[in-house]
Predict the 3D structure of the following.
Amino acid sequence: MSQQNQQVVVVIGAGGIGQAIGRRQGSGRVVLLADRNETVLKTAQEAVEAAGHNVVTHPVDVSSRESVHALAAYATSLGEVVNVVHTAGLSPVQATPEAILAVDLYGVAMVLEEFGEVVAPGASGLVVSSMAGHMLPALPVEQDQALAFTPAEELLALPFLSPEAVPGSGLAYAISKRANHLRVRGAAITWGERGARVNSISPGIILTPLAKDEMSGPGAEGYQTMIRESAAGRVGTTDEIATAAAFLLDAGFVTGSDLLIDGGVIAAIHAGRIPLSMS
């Protein structure tokens, strides 16, 4: 296959979920894995190549527009960008509220903007958000609109995202993930102008290194409660996320949507079986 006709699957965030989706989507295509951590990238490349895929890598810092722009340019140099999967993010135990907003909120908005200008007609994108985006009460309509449509470079200057308004990492994470849903809804319009689609998924507790960090941190008891009281009564797997991702990446009439994949945790919260605290 010539490079001109080569199809490229871009996976931003080379952890367990990114690798699983890359394996699921990569057959007969080039899988471009991108991550800030070179060690993670090398390990991920070896793992996905071992499954028989053609893999290339590129460093990226999703909090830097210059870095994301360079990744988008490199992706298009490889061929037609047919899938863009964004899995990169920071969790509440890993970072400050400011860092979480920069990576999980601004970073996602910027990836949607940059890749929305280069994806091929018929392409599909996917943002891996979190069930945390479903935990907040409804936001005021004007805040929803601002999170959905404010240009990425102006997002972090919104008053309701100031350090005073978002003092804790847990709250920053939940707002960022809610913003992902709204941002994807807004991006569905601009991506649609290129004949492309974009959706998000909101995983619950999935057995990854990030989840292990969370489950061994200050909120460990809360995580155990969520697992115990959920309808599924267990954690999820990266393969289950990849299955859901494959559906949305291939579902031609679905765009601007979010799919909650949490084993019933949010249902249990609404039923009053799980107490909820944002800090």
Remarks:
- The first strand starts at residue 7 and ends at 12.
- The first helix runs from residue 16 to 25.
- The mean pLDDT is 94.
